[in-house]
Amino acid sequence: MEFKELKKALAAEAKAAGICSEWYDKILTATTKERLIALYFGGFDFVEENDFPSEPLRREFDDIRRHYNVYEAEAFSTKNPRRLVAYTGAHGTAEYSNFAAAQLWARPGAEVHVKASGNAVVTVYVATGAKVDITASENARVIAFLHGGELTQNADGNAVIKIKNK
Questions:
Q1: For a FRET experiment, which of 54, 97, 103, 165 has its CA 20 to 30 Å from that of 143?
Q2: Residue 45's domain spans which residues?
Q3: What are the DSSP calls for 49-95, one per residue?
Q4: What are the beta bridge partners of residue 126?
Q5: CA distance 23 to 139
Q6: Within 10 A of 98 (CB to CB), how many other CB atoms are there?
C-alpha cells in the first residue's frame, strides 16, 4: 500500500473508533511510517482501548516494526527495549538490567517472559488472553496492570513486583 493510502486507511479506521480530531489530523499529516509509529506509542491508550490498528493495517509496518520492538506472530529476544508490544502469536523474552526504564504491552495471544534485574523499572500491561511470566531480582521494580490474562511472578533479593487488577 502506498504511504498516502496507508495514512488515509489508518485515519478512517481511527475516526470510526472515535479518535479526536487533533490525533486524526496528526495521522493525516504524518510524513513517514516512523512518525506513524511514534503516534502509535504516543496514543497507546487509544490503541489498547480500540484494538487499533487492525491486523491488516499493522501488517503494512512489517518492514520497520521490529526496529521499534513491535512483534506479531514471531519469536523475539531483546534487551532493554524502552517500549515493547507483543501481539497474537508473539512469544519471547525481554530482559531489563542496570537502570533501564520501560513499558511492555502483552496483547491477547502473546506469551512474554520479563526478566528485570539491577535497578530496572518496568511497567507491564497484560491484556485478556496474554500470558506473562515476570522474574525480578536485585533492586528491580516491576508493576503489572492485569486486564485479564495470566501472570506468574518470582521476585528475589530486594526486587518488588506489584500487581494491579484492572
A1: 54
A2: 3-65
A3: HHT-S-HHHHHTTTTTGGGGTEESSSEEEEES-SEEEE-TT-EEEEE
A4: 106, 146
A5: 38
A6: 11
d(CA 58, CA 78): 21
Task: Give yes or no: residues 144 and 94 share one domain.
Answer: yes
* Same domain for 60 and 83: no
What's the grid cell of residue 27? 495521522
Same-domain check for residues 139 and 79: yes
Q: pTM score > 0.90 for this model?
A: yes
pLDDT tens sequence for the chain (166 residues): 999 999 999 999 999 999 999 999 999 999 999 999 999 999 999 999 999 999 999 999 999 999 999 999 999 999 999 999 999 999 999 999 999 999 999 999 999 999 999 999 999 999 999 999 999 999 999 999 999 999 999 999 999 999 999 8
